[in-house]
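Listing 4. Sequential folding, example run.
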Amino acid sequence: MRQTLNVLSAALSLALAATLSPQALAEAPMVKTQAPAYHRVLLGDFEITALGDGTVKLPVTKLLHGAADKHSDQLRANYLGDEVDTSVNAYLINTGSKLVLVDTGAAGLFGPTLGNLLTNLKAAGYRPENVDAVLITHMHPDHVGGLMTGEQRAFPNATLHIDKKDADFWLSEANMAAAPEGNKGFFQGAMVSVKPYLAAGKLKTFDGNTELMPGIRAQAANGHTPGHTLYVAESKGQKIAFWGDLMHVAAVQFNDPSVTIAFDTDIGAARAQREQAFADAAKNGYLVGVAHVSFPGLGRLNQSADGKRYTWVPLNHMGLK
């Protein structure tokens, strides 16, 4: 009996060793997918959920303006190249009585690596028909493309809020006709995404700084586009500002806020708005949500002693309490 047990034990050991051998482990198929991109944080009585739409490669050294000789050095110092996988983030605010989405991602307007917002919204426990309001920071394709699913409004019960200056500019056929050929797609993307809401009576424009609903307000930050807007949510003394496209390349623009990007409609105004927002966020220590900082794009800013540079402090991962 003892000899039999010894034989069985040896056989089992050999089988286990074969199962755990490096060769066997190496043959396991790679998954090659990420987990659903959503992240939640509490803000007073509000719940904020960051939603990832995906990433898109941008040739940032060709797009950035100002101190061009330093861009590559700053990117390399952050282990990045001349092309950067750039996050496209949106944010869901649950006030307890309203479900409010800030920006919608690109859907199919910016290539195959984006368009994941609805999937991540559902993974986060919500349905598109639950959304009461959609706040658009500006009408570039990677912010409005997700408004539509094919021929249908993606958020059928939502009222769409956009600054009047942006709506007037991007929905104008005359402006599109006058635009350079390479920019006409921006107008077309805005029109195909927003006009169905207008036709359904679901578009509500506002003019500059506006209280949209209890605890949520629009703050004019024109420059990147004619009606570019920040949205601010506050609850129980806590605050978050959603910056939209106030900045694009963290590795460069936090170190030098004067650096602008080719997507800006008014370069000087966009730079001034960024510098003002950076200084205010660093001084007052509130949370910011940034569309193109690595997901979830939530964090705070510290200012250097000379006031010229900033350090991005990502939100520490935490459980909900």
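-- end of first protein; second protein begins --
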Amino acid sequence: MTMQPRTALVTGANRGLGLETCRQLAARGFRVILTSRNDDGAGAARRLADGGLTVEHRRLEVTDPASIATLEAWLRNERVSIDVLVNNAGIALDGFNPEVARRTVDVNFFGALQVTDGLIARVPDGGNVVMVSSGVGEVAGLAPPLRERFLAPGLTRDELVRLVGAFVRDVESGRHREAGWPSSAYRVSKVGMNALVRVLARELGPRKIRVNAVCPGWVRTDMGGKGASRSVEEGAASIVWAAALEDGPTGGFFRDGQPIPW
């Protein structure tokens, strides 16, 4: 009996870490669905496929519920299960103002939440969900009262959504410093993502779905810059480690396969 390859879906994968993650997963024998918000990803997927890897492209805008629903419908109609969901799509915008705060949180936090909620029915029991986070998402960058709220063992998804939303509202009202927030929307979005990992790990525990956050390190991508200390290949290897787990931890934060502080 021929074993079917496991399938991985990677968001924001038309370049950088996402693209290299697709390449490495496909090289391990996964069928990879490379998603991107525009058709740039189609060419990237075609180049990998031309190299003998099983990679195909689908469009996905992580902030658009209709786009997520369209992808879920295609997966369902094609009877495709996603053994691995990698939430890689993210932005880091210049400057700091209410619009930057709102856009960053919408993509990095709410995008990952919406995609996971929208596609989780296509993830079989025992699958993997990987959140591509960052070391700047460690709670040490928050004031102690906020730190305690994000780390609360019983934090619910509704409480987390309200907490992340409060950051945007506090920036809009000009009182974010007074409330204990840093002046970095990217940092807060990744703190929120890390907390989301712990919430989802509890929610999906009965289905044995592992949910983990990965920090790829400071990587030489368009976002990380040419002066970054790590190659794209090294950064993606951290993500692939969590994506390829067949048994192992859930609800953790890792770099190079090793746990790191929240």
